[in-house]
């Protein structure tokens, strides 16, 4: 049974946020979708080990910022590959708190909504929170980031806690003749052909040609954390 | 509260199929997604009034064909805007039955999987079926149909039974100066600028210039069923 068929399901890329009093947290998610139209309800899948999960479990509220296509990898990495237990993810980020108390990220977001949890469905490693829309807003117009764009154009990677973590990074290995390097921390693959234009590195720059202070655009790890594929 | 923010969530376009003995049925769906990676489980949202729902409820099995970008509107309309109670949706369609008995559509599909239901979550008008992957297969390579492409490029519409039915067709009205016509049966909007190239109608063909035997590319209604927006 080839589970790679599941890579052909379509998703967007979102920041899900929640709070525990004054303590704010947020994480990247791709499994967010509308379930009913009347009343409008959404569902979001969250790994039980994530800090956001414990906040939502307690407060019964969460908020979602819908990201635009041009969102830098580093911004996604900040929310997707770090834990709110160790870092303040909202430091140096523009955000506002909604009436529910949940913070929504304004940087790189097209629009947002908050939702009140009406039911929790236990799915094993993840819980699906079914929630009723409570507040909405538009920030700007722009193209939406899709999961496909994140992977195929931005060369982003998937954390192990994500519902859609599969063998995709492994599958992608060895497709190109040019030497690529893989980040041992987050599995980001440095592809010399695409390079890292978000951070001023032009296409067709070999890994060896990167400046010494270059860091992984996703998780911030140094060059020494990379190894040949 | 502007529920139009929900139009910025991303989806694909799928055919979900099921069977009741020799009786086969299938429908279009956009809310299908992976929920856990180990073991790989997926969830699909189905309206309780749909025939597919009653089949899945009974057999605890369903299959999903993942559609390609070039899928004609009429093919989507056949599965999305007709009821299996009145028509045999598999007539003139290439399909095969999987070991579960579920039929999967081969036309316009990139790949498929079948899944065994392990849990049902009641969400009001819809039920989310959580299911464990049981069989998979690839049919061809190609670009995937996204919900955004279906709406913005193919000018497809959303049936009222869909979880994502909202005011989107209403929102879209009045955006263009050129006279557009709306199908009273399925809400498809004939846009003269885009016209209906799937059926040989070139861009910039006024509604009045359509041949008398032209029918709605989504639901098959005649020209007389259309009215000015």
From TrEMBL, chains A, B:
Chain segments annotated as coiled-coil in the UniProt record: none
Pfam families noted in UniProt: Flavin_Reduct, Rubredoxin
Natural source organism: Candidatus Ghiorseimicrobium undicola
Protein name according to UniProt: High molecular weight rubredoxin
GO molecular function: electron transfer activity; FMN binding; iron ion binding; oxidoreductase activity, acting on the CH-NH group of donors, NAD or NADP as acceptor
UniProt entry tagged with the keyword Cell division: no
Keyword Transport: yes
Domain Rubredoxin-like per the UniProt entry, residue ranges: 178-229
SUPFAM superfamilies per record: FMN-binding split barrel, Rubredoxin-like
Entry superkingdom: Bacteria
Cofactor(s) the protein needs: Fe(3+)
SMART domains: Flavin_Reduct (SM00903)
Assigned keywords, A-Z: Electron transport, Iron, Metal-binding, Transport
Alphabetized CDD domains for the sequence: rubredoxin (cd00730)
A single GO BP: alkane catabolic process
């Amino acid at each position: 049974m080839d589970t790679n068929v599941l890579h052909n399901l379509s998703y967007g890329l979102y920041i899900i946020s929640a709070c525990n009093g004054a303590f704010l947290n947020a994480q990247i998610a791709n499994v967010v979708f509308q379930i009913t139209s009347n009343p409008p309800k959404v569902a979001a899948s969250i790994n039980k080990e994530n800090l956001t999960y414990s906040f939502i479990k307690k407060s019964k509220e969460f908020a979602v910022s819908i990201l635009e296509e041009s969102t830098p990898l580093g911004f996604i990495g900040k929310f997707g590959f770090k834990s709110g237990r160790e870092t303040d993810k909202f430091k140096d980020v523009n955000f506002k708190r909604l009436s529910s108390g949940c913070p929504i990220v304004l940087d790189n977001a097209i629009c947002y909504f908050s939702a009140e949890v009406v039911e929790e469905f236990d799915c094993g490693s993840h819980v699906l929170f079914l929630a009723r829309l409570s507040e909405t807003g538009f920030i700007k117009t722009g193209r939406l980031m899709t999961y496909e764009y994140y992977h195929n154009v931005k060369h982003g990677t998937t954390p192990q806690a994500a519902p859609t973590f599969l063998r995709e990074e492994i599958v992608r290995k060895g497709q190109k003749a040019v030497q690529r390097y893989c980040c041992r921390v987050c599995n980001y693959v440095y592809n010399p052909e695409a390079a890292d234009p978000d951070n001023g590195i032009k296409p067709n720059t070999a890994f060896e040609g990167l400046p010494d202070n270059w860091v992984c655009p996703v998780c911030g790890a140094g060059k020494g954390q990379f190894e040949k594929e």
